[in-house]
Amino acid sequence: MQAIWQIYKNVVFEFGQPLSPRLNFAIITAHNPLGELCSAGQNAMLDRVLQRDITALGVPYRSLFGCDSTKSHMEKSWAIAIDKEIAITLAKNHKQNALYWVADDQLYLVPALMVGVQEEYIGRFSDKVISINAQLSVS
């Protein structure tokens, strides 16, 4: 589990619209539940279910991609303006090991289903943004 936690800590983000540095939000994906790689079709279906659940919350959200530093692995994700406890529950419901929490431009890696790890500060969110791609859809 420590190896996958390290991978999660080395994330960068690509998204279509800048977010206010004063906004607190969670970043959650539905891709690859429990860290198991799924096909593109499976991940797309899982993402649609997550987006439906987010829409039902009636809160602001934006699409983005969580990536490794080389962008060789990218997961469609959502920045969601919700309470951290609700975010953890949402991540657990979608079988995610962890989620990211952003508060005042500070980025934290938060366990959801992972055990044996603690929430960890991993840097300034703005330092983890590698590009803003205007071609990405914004919901």
Question: How is this structure best summarized?
Answer:
The protein has 139 residues and is α+β, with helices and mostly antiparallel strands.
Jot down its keywords.
single chain; about 140 residues; alpha+beta; eight-stranded mixed sheet; about 25% helix; disordered C terminus
- Residue share in β-strands: 25-35%
Specify the helix fraction band: 25-40%
Largest sheet: 8 strands, mixed
Supply the number of structural domains.
Answer: 1
Average of per-residue pLDDT values: 91
Shape: globular
The class by helix and strand makeup works out as alpha+beta
Low-confidence stretches: 134-139
Widest sheet, order of strands:
7-6-5-2-4-3-1-8
Discrete helix count: 3
Cα separation of the termini: 33 Å
- How are helices and strands ordered from N to C? HEEHEEHEEEE
Radius of gyration: 14 Å
- Overall number of strands: 8
